[in-house]
Structure formats: structure tokens, C-alpha cells
Amino acid sequence: MEDNRRRKHRDICTNEAEEVSSTEWEFVDLTDQEEDLVYRMHRLVGDRWGLIAGRLADRKPEEIERFWIMRHSDEFAGRRKRRARGRLGGNSPW
């Protein structure tokens, strides 16, 4: 019995997610409909990412929060501009 507990504890401890610095985040691509729903739900319920993610198929609360932070944070403004420029096919460094 004690052996099973140790094994379960070891499995739980090794499966914990590692924290990743926000500078290493990848952009979350949402469809236009998903983005619209996130904005409308945020207006209604605020930062309750679990509730919002529950309305989107196959999305986790962490993804929705990361999308929101990256979309509204000044820290990511440069990355957003570079990404948008890349999508438009512009190779200009400015």
C-alpha cells in the first residue's frame, strides 16, 4: 500500500507543468469568431478565463489568458507588429 502511494506521488510530481517566461510565449491563433466571443465574454465576466474557455471548443483557460495578455500588453506590441508584417509578406525590418 505504501509503495502505491509513493509511486502515485512520484507520478504527480513529475507531471507538473513548468512555468515559462512570458517572453518565450508563442502567439495564440484564434479565429475571428473566437476572438469576438472572447471580447464579448470578457466584457460580461471579466478575467474569468475558465468560463470563457468553456465556451470555446478545445481551448484552455491558460491559452485564453495568454491571448488576452499578448493582445493588450505594451510589452508585446513590437512582436505583434513584426508578426502582422510577416503575415502581409513585408520583409522590411521597419
List low-confidence stretches. none
- In CATH, the topology of one domain is named Arc Repressor Mutant, subunit A
Largest sheet: none
* Highest-level CATH class of one domain: Mainly Alpha
The helix-strand sequence is: HHHHH
Separation, N- and C-terminal Cα atoms: 64 Å
CATH architecture of one domain: Orthogonal Bundle
CATH superfamily placement of one domain: Homeodomain-like
Main location: nucleus
GO biological process, one term: cell differentiation
Protein name: Myb-like domain-containing protein
GO molecular function, one term: transcription cis-regulatory region binding
Identify the notable features of this structure and list them briefly.
Myb-like domain-containing protein, Myb_TF_plants, Homeodomain-like_sf, single chain, Arc Repressor Mutant, subunit A, DNA-binding, globular, 94 residues
Concise overview:
This protein is mostly helical and 94 residues long. It contains 5 helices and no strands.
Structure description:
The structure is a single chain. With 94 residues, this protein is mainly α. The protein is built from 5 helices and no strands. The radius of gyration is 18 Å and the shape is globular. The termini are far apart. 5% of the residues are buried. The model has no long low-confidence stretch (mean pLDDT 75).
